[in-house]
Specification:
This protein is mainly β. The chain is about 5% helix and about 55% strand. The chain has 1 helix and 10 strands; from the N terminus they run E-E-E-H-E-E-E-E-E-E-E. It has one helix spanning about 35, and strands at about 1-5, 10, 15-25, 40-50, 55-60, 65, 75, 85-90, 95-100, 105-110. Strand 2 (about 10) and strand 3 (about 15-25) form a beta hairpin. The chain starts with a strand and ends with a strand.
């Protein structure tokens, strides 16, 4: 599954305006996602910043999945403190490890 969104703020090495992000993960709409959660391969955040183009987050724990406001919606929430490996994407396209950080998040996805 890949999903995209628009503008939000992220505090990682200072405030960053996130232009969009891509979530590479198992689908939260599969049969056992509500009981088992989903594995996230990577979240790529594209930011407006002078020293980098974005960040990759690799979460250590599965995301919890709960029903959303409609049958077509799911709420994804980090578990275990939201610990993730964080990689900075430099302006020349390289990924540089920044370490392990608590980056808790919650988002709602809707099946179209």
């Amino acid at each position: 599954m890949e999903c995209y969104t628009t503008f939000f703020q992220l505090y990682l090495c200072g405030w960053n305006a996130v232009k969009d992000f891509i979530l590479h993960a198992e689908t939260p709409f599969k049969q056992n996602a509500l009981s088992n959660g989903i594995r996230v391969n990577r979240i790529t955040l594209n930011v407006e910043h002078s020293y980098c183009d974005g960040f990759n987050l690799e979460y250590e724990q599965r995301l919890a999945v709960t029903p959303g406001a409609t049958a077509a919606a799911r709420v994804l929430t980090t578990t275990g403190g939201g610990w993730a490996r964080v990689w900075k994407i430099t302006t020349n396209g390289r990924s540089v490890s920044m370490g392990r950080y608590a980056v808790p998040m919650q988002l709602t996805v809707t099946k179209l």
